[in-house]
């Protein structure tokens, strides 16, 4: 499946993934207390159907980075508002950005997004980045 899942306000948010050759960009929300799934409609700049992307949440926000879609590996970054169900692409102010990557690790501690590793077209990556949502700028951090 190679989808992503995170917890927001006590619910599980499952985005994207693939089955065989079909890629998805739908959002399913699992209500833990009531034990049911809901297909959630969304608006805004919805990420393309993809798999092996990275997500995390903080408060009512979820961020998504990279993955792979029909055109190949990605390095785009999106933020999702779980109160309005609206996506927005976070466009960096400069060309200093992570490589196109799938399978990265991601942590959101608003307003900072930490991205580590993954697999690029040339193999595994140990790159470590932080993105500031307020300034829309990436900074490369030291790797180990």
Automatic annotation (TrEMBL):
Keywords: Kelch repeat, Repeat. Gene3D superfamilies: Kelch-type beta propeller. SUPFAM superfamilies: Kelch motif. Pfam families: Kelch_KLHDC2_KLHL20_DRC7. PANTHER family: ACYL-COA-BINDING DOMAIN-CONTAINING PROTEIN 5, FIBRONECTIN TYPE-III DOMAIN-CONTAINING PROTEIN. This is Uncharacterized protein. It comes from Stentor coeruleus.
